[in-house]
Automatic annotation (TrEMBL):
This is Conjugal transfer protein, TraD. InterPro entries: Conjugal_tfr_TraD_a-type. It comes from Rhizobium grahamii CCGE 502. Keywords: Plasmid. NCBIfam families: PRK13847.1.
Amino acid sequence: MRRSTTSDVRKKDTREKIELGGLIVKAGLRYEKRALLLGLLIDAAARLKGDAQERSRLAALGAEAFGERDD
C-alpha cells in the first residue's frame, strides 16, 4: 500500500511539472535559456509580493491567453 501511495505522489508531481513546462511553451519561451526563465520567475515573484494590482493584471493577461475572457 505504501509503495502505491508513493507512486501516486510521484505521478502527480511529474504531471504538475509537465503542465508547468507547458506554460513556458505557451508563453513563447521554449527556446530561452533556463537561467533567463528562472530569473523571470524570481523577478515576477518579487513583484507580486504585496502588489494585488500587479497580480490581478497578470492573472487577467494569463486568463486571456487561455481564452478565458471576462467580457
